[in-house]
Structure formats: structure tokens, C-alpha cells
Amino acid sequence: MNKKRYTSRLDIKNGTVDMTHGSGGRAMAQLIEELFISNLDNELLRQGNDQAAFDVEKGRMVMSVDGHVISPLFFPGGDIGSLSVHGTVNDVAMSGAKPLYLSAGFILEEGFPLADLKRIVESMAAAANLAGVPVVTGDTKVVEKGKGDGVFITTTGIGVVPEGVNISGDLARPGDKIIVSGSMGDHGVAIMSKRENLTFETTIESDSQALHDLIAEMVQAVPTIHCLRDPTRGGLASTLNEMAQQSNVGMKLREEDIPIKPEVHAACELLGLDPLYVANEGKLIAICSADDADKLLAVMRAHPKGEDASIIGDVIEDEHNFIQMETSFGGSRIVDWLAGEQLPRIC
Amino acid sequence: MNKKRYTSRLDIKNGTVDMTHGSGGRAMAQLIEELFISNLDNELLRQGNDQAAFDVEKGRMVMSVDGHVISPLFFPGGDIGSLSVHGTVNDVAMSGAKPLYLSAGFILEEGFPLADLKRIVESMAAAANLAGVPVVTGDTKVVEKGKGDGVFITTTGIGVVPEGVNISGDLARPGDKIIVSGSMGDHGVAIMSKRENLTFETTIESDSQALHDLIAEMVQAVPTIHCLRDPTRGGLASTLNEMAQQSNVGMKLREEDIPIKPEVHAACELLGLDPLYVANEGKLIAICSADDADKLLAVMRAHPKGEDASIIGDVIEDEHNFIQMETSFGGSRIVDWLAGEQLPRIC
């Protein structure tokens, strides 16, 4: 294969993306070979066709897509490369599925430093390796300077659902318990702090991580989990509203049981944000019957990615699909959908 | 489901995309419901989860991704919506697979007219319906004005390969015949003419179309086809070079057998383009053994999408993997990779 058909190697240290890298010609082939394939390396990607081929068993499969336009590209706890793996692995896993493979479409802006692109692809490769979910097929496009913003990455994932598992946002029932896997708001606050150049005593890091290993244990222990969803854009509040509407139920939360780190609370006050609306990239919401809740909570807490899991409330009957919350001060409020725009380009 | 939770319907006629449409909140939910789901409507998309779930049979599956950043968004013979369906359906089908499902990730620029977005989504829906390959899961992100360019669409497709079919770019063998399904260069010339505001006596239209139905008949007639690939970016020349290198062979073409429309030829002369390097979006290259070539050609010509199919040359032994071409004037030249950038943002 390696014919040394390029006169010289890609200048990753000083080079930048130019329009020829999206042309379909020799420059694009070199970029793909020396930067993408060499880092994301796996057997399927190396097939070198416009598609990856693999064997599947008969069963239920899921497919999910997530575009990533986060700004800044690098942030405490991650970057757009690792995020684009975690985001889609999680969307696949929220069906209870074992994620199998990812595709990745890159849209690059002319002038973007190849060194930064390399960092991003390396981070993507590390995240994919750690998750055991390889990027098996990819595509690269280049747009003129001023027509993009560095790098956008759209990933699609597929996975297989274990037999007997049926998890969906429309399956919440009155009486069910609502559990979150850990503290809310870390990702969004990490991004906003970076954007606003805020420094705190301790750096707030994004919680960006793949949750499929946690989910696999949850599903094995309680195959009858009703709903799973990750509270990304719009945060816990918007995601619960989505599910309440989908299931045609209401919910009642207890504010004091919603885990939020003190430094995230403090940063939110400073930034004028409500942590319930702030994006997470490594947390999940589970809804299950009251009978299963303690068992599920125990399994989650026994896993490093769920050690701060908490039962935050109950599903109730409500034709208006309202999310109510008992506040820490003993009051009560409605937690509505995010109405405007709290955090642009948070993922 | 329909709770009329929006105070008013989306103003598609006069409205534009704003940052709230990517926020994860109510405005995004409304955009997705009233513009995306209502047009792309299908049972899987209506599951309303962050992933689509479906049953698959045991077998060989393929996955392929294609980002679309074409400019202009609307062009003679198509638009970015239909193109984003055709491009990925074709990439999946070039393995001999029957395409099953698509995912679509939209990256929208703030200020983009909703009326244009609606046209694009309608066109996407029409293309998906015609192809019988639904968009089953999607994602929408919004970037600030000046950080994108209207609309980018990244689609991923999956499909199943019929048993016994094994098509790959590394399977060309000396003695094989090279066939193209029709005229070369139509898509790229249609785009460039539009960009340059050129008018000809007849409008040159993009050949953008889904080829999986043609391929299904080809594979059924000749299950032993060695290679299939669509000559998109970089055109026929770059795609043949890719395959020659992958298979470690050379190729010998006859210029006079390569179908090119007279008006495409004329436009290329005017624009200073070489039609062999101009992108196609509805044509394929097939490579098969000499024994199968006449049968395959006949099947292709009997199909409306292959009626101008032509055997354009032979695979030969060549350790340098050169593509040689006998010119119409009896000379000979090397058809190299596209070296620079001929047509930016052609797909």
C-alpha cells in the first residue's frame, strides 16, 4: 500500500488546513492517511473503501447522530474530539444498547492549524479506544476561511440492544422514581468559565465521558428500566420536560436531592445561570419503577461513573406534564423548558 | 403528544434560524417538530428518542458517512438536501449493499431563512422517499452568523450486503474491464456554471441521483463484480487512481470511450476544467472480470440510470499504479491524481 507517493510528509507542526485538503485529490488522501487513519487506526477503517463492512447478529439495533460545534474546541476535561465520541456513544447507549461503531464527518475551516487538528484526532482516538467503540468510516470537507469555525465533527453511532431490554422516553409511569447518575452542570460551567476567562480556586472540569459501561451494568441488574436519557443541551430541566411530555406524565423533584457541586453552584451564581438548565456530557437520568429504584441506585453507586447517583424525585400523574420542584427552602416551583438560549455552542 | 405547547407556530415564511434553535430548549423542539419531523416523517423518526431502534437480520452490514458543504445550496438538478441523501445512499450501495437507514446532522448558521431550510428538508424527504431509505434520526446545531455558511448536512447510512457479494477497491485484477455508468462531469459543471453565472443554450443539470436500484440489478446479474465506486470529488481520474493504488494495479483507458456530453465538454473548455477531474454525483465505476463485462454492461444499459454505460478501459499490471490513457488523437498520457484544488465545495 505505502507507495510513498507524496513528495514529502504533511507538515503537521507548522501547516494549516487548505482547500486542497477537501478536494478529493492527492492532498486529501495524504491528510486522511497521515493524520486520520494513522491515529484512529483500526481494521475496519483500513479497509480503505468509502464504507466500512462488518458482520452483525440478528437483533435490535439503534442508530444515533450528534453534531459537535463546541466553542472553545479545547476545554478543561476534554475537547471536541473526545466529546464527539462520548456524545454519540452515550446517545446510542441510552437505549440500553452496546455501542459498536462510529462514523465521523469533519468540516474543517481553511487555515486551521494541523497541529490542533492532530490533537483533536488523537483525543478522539483515545476516547474511542477507551470506550472500545472504533471510528470505522469518515469524511473530510473543507470550507473557506470565515465560512466555518475551526472544526465541526458530526458522529453517528450504531449499537445492539440486549434482548428483552426496551427503554424509551415514553415509558415513564406515575409512581416511577427519577434517578440522576451524578452532579449536574459541570460541563456547561466548565465551558462558560473558559469562555469568560473565569478562574476559581479549583478548575471546574467538564464531565465529558462515555457512560455505556455504567449503563451495561444498570441494564443487567434491572433490565426493566423504563427511560434513560442524558441531560445535555438544555440540562436536566429540558430533558425531564421532554420525557414528561413524551410519556404524558408530570414529575415532582426535590431540589435538595439534586447533586450539584458547590463550585458549580458558585460559578452559576456568578454567571447568572441556573444549574438545572446547564448541559452535562457524562451524566444520565434513569426512570424506573419504585420497586427497582433502590437496586438500581445501588448498582449505579457501585460504579465509578455513578458514585454520586441520587433519587431526585417521582413521576406523577399530570395532564399538563409539569415538572414541579420542592425547593430547598420548602417552597415549590415549576421547572419549565429552557425558553431562550442559555449557552450557545455548548456541545 | 400534541399539547400545543408553543404559543404560535414557527414563522417559516419570514423567520430565520436563531441561536435558540440550537439550545436544547423549547425553540429547538419546535423547529424539530414543525420543520424536520413533519417533513421527514417516518415511524422510526417518530419514536422521539435520541436514537432510532429497528430490527436487523444476521449478516454483513456497511456504514458510510458523507459531509455536505456544497455552495450554492440550490443548483440545477438538485440542492444540498437531495444531495445529502444521494451521496450517502450511493456510498453505502457501492459495497453492493441495500441501503436501509440514514442519520442526518444539520449545522445551521444563525440568520438562515427558515423558508430555505424548509425547501432543503422537503427535498431531502422527497429524495429519501424516492430511494426508500428514510432518515431515522437527526441532530440540529446552530452556529453564530459568520461561523458557518447557511447549512451543512452530514449524513450517515447503513445497509446490508447480500450474501456472497464481496466488492472492494482492492479487488481489481489485471485483465479486468473498467465500466462507467454514464456521462462524466455533469455535476461539477452544473455547480460551476451556476457559480460563474454562465448560461448555455441548454442548462447543464447535476446528475445527483441514488444508484442503489441500478446496483441491485448489477449485483444480481453479476454477483462477482470486483469493485464499485462513485467518482465524486476529484472525478473519474482521482477515483481510478485510488482504486489502482488500493489494488496495486495500473489501468489503461481509451479517451474516446469515456462518455462526456458535448455541452459539458464545451463548458469545461470555457471554465478551464478537465472533465476527468470533475465531480459526479449520480454515476459509478464498476470493475469486473473480462468474462463478465458484456453481461454487466447489458444489464446497466437496460436500466435508465445506466443507459449510457460504456467500457472505458482495462486493468493492467503496473507496479507504479499509473492510469494511462490513449487519447482521441492517438497519443497517450498519464492521468494523474488531482494535485491541487479544482472545484472547492462541490459536494
UniProtKB/TrEMBL annotation, chains A, B:
Pfam families: AIRS, AIRS_C. Residues 48-161 form the PurM-like N-terminal domain. Residues 173-324 form the PurM-like C-terminal domain. It comes from the Bacteria. One of its GO terms (biological process) is protein maturation. InterPro entries: HypE, PurM-like_C_dom, PurM-like_C_sf, PurM-like_N, PurM-like_N_sf. PANTHER family: CARBAMOYL DEHYDRATASE HYPE, HYDROGENASE ISOENZYMES FORMATION PROTEIN HYPE. Belongs to the HypE family. This is Hydrogenase expression/formation protein HypE. The lineage of its organism: Bacteria, Pseudomonadati, Pseudomonadota, Gammaproteobacteria, Chromatiales.
